[in-house]
Structures are given as structure tokens and as C-alpha cells.
Specification:
about 35% helix, about 200 residues, two-stranded antiparallel sheet, alpha/beta, 2 domains, 9 strands
């Protein structure tokens, strides 16, 4: 899992705008690419579970055309976790408190199983009132069809297709097609290795 988390973090950080353009083009349209700053050591302690969590990726970005900044938090999840929605909210609250900037939260789920749709919100309800409704954007790769991305000109699609819904018998052919497409992007060797790394079994 450590290898998985590190690989996804490095992939999305390297192809940050490409990731937004592929899955959230409306967000990419208002982000100034020249303003991107990745924040390090965004850590919080969950005292109730005795765990220490480090956010996968937090970027400080500026809106195009003005000097207003906000944060984009992208959390890569390699296994299903019952309390994940509450953890996303905890991250959000901590980032908001620490940086005093709006936070755009995104979760990317890359496990193969189960196939149930992941929640996209965290709520706190009482019989008489809903105190909280926190929403975040999601990309659940095992719900996506690789055929919809095979001809994409976006290089990160070639990597993430490895975690999409592919029949076992089709996997060698899809991998070959993806690597052939990847060769047309004329990326440097380090980026090529990073993308092809997701096709290595874990």
C-alpha cells in the first residue's frame, strides 16, 4: 500500500493539470497553471483511532485572472475504508483552519474490488436538523470503462487505465495499446517510467 500511495502521489503531482483536464475540465479551466505550489508535510493525528495521517497531495493554486488562491486536495485511496468520508472532512477542516483558504476536495479510488459506488459526502444528522453536509468530488477507477479513454491524448489516461474495468482476457491487449499510445506523447524517460509503472502488478 505504501508503494501504491507513493506511486499515485508522484503520478498526479507530475501530471497535475493533465489529471484535472481529464476528470475535472471545469476546474482546470479556472486554475492558473503557473501558480501551482505543492504543500508538503500536511499531517494530522486521529486521536480516536490512534493513527497519524499524511495527506497525499495538496496544491495551492490561483484562479486565472486574479490574485485569489485556493487549495486542491487530492487523496488517493487504494482500499475501501468505512470511515473514509469522515477522514476527508477532517482533512478539509484542518486545511481550512491552517491555511485560511477555500479547499476543493477530490478522492481517487484505485482498488479493483469491491465495485460498490463510493460515497461522495459526509453528513451529520439529528432527528430535527442536518448539521453538516460535506461533499467532495470522486474518481472511482473500477467504475470506468477503459474503452472511453483508449484514444485520449492525455498521457495520464494511459496510466490510470491500468486500474479501470478491464476483463482479464483483454488486459494484455489493453496494456499493449496503452504503451503504444504512450510512445506517441514524446515524454522524457522518467515520465514514461512513472506512467508505465501503474501497469506493474501490485
Amino acid at each position: 500500500m505504501i508503494k501504491h500511495d507513493r506511486l499515485f502521489k508522484e503520478l498526479i503531482e507530475t501530471f497535475f493539470m493533465e489529471f484535472l483536464e481529464l476528470f475535472f475540465p471545469e476546474v482546470a479551466a479556472y486554475v492558473d497553471p503557473s501558480s501551482i505550489q505543492f504543500l508538503r508535510d500536511e499531517v494530522f493525528t486521529d486521536v480516536t483511532r490512534g493513527e497519524c495521517h499524511r495527506a497525499d497531495l495538496v496544491a495551492k493554486v490561483r484562479f486565472r485572472g486574479n490574485d485569489t488562491y485556493f487549495l486542491i486536495h487530492i487523496e488517493a485511496q487504494g482500499q475501501q475504508q468505512d470511515y473514509f468520508p469522515s477522514r476527508m472532512f477532517t482533512y478539509f477542516a484542518r486545511f481550512l483552519e491552517r491555511h485560511q483558504l477555500p479547499v476543493y476536495p477530490v478522492a481517487i479510488f484505485s482498488y479493483k474490488w469491491p465495485l460498490e459506488t463510493e460515497p461522495k459526502e459526509y453528513t451529520v444528522d439529528f432527528p430535527d436538523v442536518q448539521v453538516l453536509r460535506f461533499q467532495y468530488r470522486t474518481v472511482q477507477l473500477n467504475k470506468l470503462n477503459w474503452r472511453d479513454f483508449l484514444r485520449s491524448s492525455n498521457p495520464i489516461a494511459s496510466a490510470l487505465m491500468a486500474r479501470m474495468r478491464i476483463k482479464k482476457k483483454d488486459r494484455p491487449r489493453v496494456k499493449t495499446e496503452c504503451l503504444r499510445l504512450l510512445a506517441t506523447f514524446q515524454l522524457n524517460p522518467a515520465k514514461m517510467k512513472l506512467i508505465s509503472g501503474l501497469w506493474t502488478p501490485t
